[in-house]
Design a protein that fits this description.
Layout lengths: L1 E4 L14 E12 L2 E12 L3 E5 L6 H9 L6 E6 L6 E3 L13 H6 L3 H4 L7 H13 L15 H14 L4 E5 L7 H16 L3 E5 L3 H5 L3 E6 L2 E6 L1 H4 L2 H8 L3
Helix pairs in contact: 4-5
The chain binds adenosine-5'-triphosphate.
Length: 247
């Protein structure tokens, strides 16, 4: 699927590289009266775990929102190579903490895209929900109210909701924020497993250890791509100092 935004030159060739899951070219996006991403070109390779790294406000969440289709670019080109609609786990879940929902019901909402909110879940839906609960280590919390959970447990429930969507593209905004070291390691291992299972993962992170364990990295600063490549090559002390230096 290829989407063009306010682009004059419609003759731009699409990427023919079959290894690409997403290609973005000259992409600009932001909020009303507040441009954030400026002329960003990058690509996401299929079956990789890609980390979006950059200081606060550099545009990581905005880029994830664009990839998820919830923020419309103002210019440029975004191309998804087939696949299913992405599963997006925003920084603060769309589910309010005060809603009277159990963890299981929260994860079941991940099936709504497939089933609609009012239809009975199929056996396959229930299996997808059970698998997601187990993979996040929260099966024992299934009957608890979301509002009763710790921040880290709630975060895991929201990731499980994303997983239950069974998309081939999982977009996660700071999935390990608020988690203890053991849960962080569990999520890092899970992302690696998901890639092995056929999922392309893109996650925004401030955790440089998590970024270093990714397969690829996009380094952002002030809404622009500074560099893209393997984390070991990109996340050098001098590159990080450059990106984090005050504007
Ligand atoms: N809903 C919004 N309306 C207006 N401006 C916004 C909105 N959300 C974010 N912004 C602004 O867009 C810019 C980029 O924010 P974004 O959340 O994409 O950055 P980020 O790299 O994810 O930051 P962080 O690491 O703090 O999560 C910031 O200047 C922010 O204030």
């Amino acid at each position: 699927m290829k989407i063009m935004f306010n682009k004059q030159d419609l003759s731009l060739p699409s990427a023919t590289d079959p290894t690409l899951r997403i290609r973005i070219e000259g992409l600009s996006a932001g909020y009303a009266g507040h441009p954030v991403l400026h002329q960003l070109s990058a690509h996401i390779v299929k079956l990789t775990n890609t980390a979006l790294v950059g200081p606060n406000g550099s545009g990581k969440s905005t880029l994830l929102g664009v990839l998820a289709g919830v923020i419309q670019p103002t210019a440029g080109e975004l191309e998804h190579a087939g696949g299913r609609p992405p599963a997006f786990v925003p920084q603060r879940g769309a589910v309010g903490d005060t809603l009277p929902l159990t963890v299981r019901q929260t994860v079941e909402m991940g099936r709504w895209g497939e089933r609609g909110p009012w239809r009975r879940l199929t056996r396959h839906d229930r299996t997808a929900v059970d698998t997601a609960l187990e993979r996040l280590g929260i099966a024992d919390l299934a009957a608890r109210q979301l509002g009763e959970l710790s921040g880290g447990q709630r975060q895991r429930a929201l990731i499980a909701q994303g997983l239950a969507q069974e998309s081939d593209l999982l977009l996660l905004d700071e999935p390990t924020t608020g988690l203890d070291p053991e849960a962080r390691e569990r999520i890092a291992a899970l992302l690696t497993e998901l890639v092995a299972d056929g999922v392309t993962v893109v996650h925004a992170t401030h955790d440089l250890d998590a970024a270093r364990s990714a397969d690829a990295c996009l380094l952002l600063r002030e809404g622009r791509l500074v560099s893209q490549g393997h984390p070991e090559q990109l996340l050098t002390p001098s590159a990080l100092a450059h990106v984090w230096q005050p504007a």
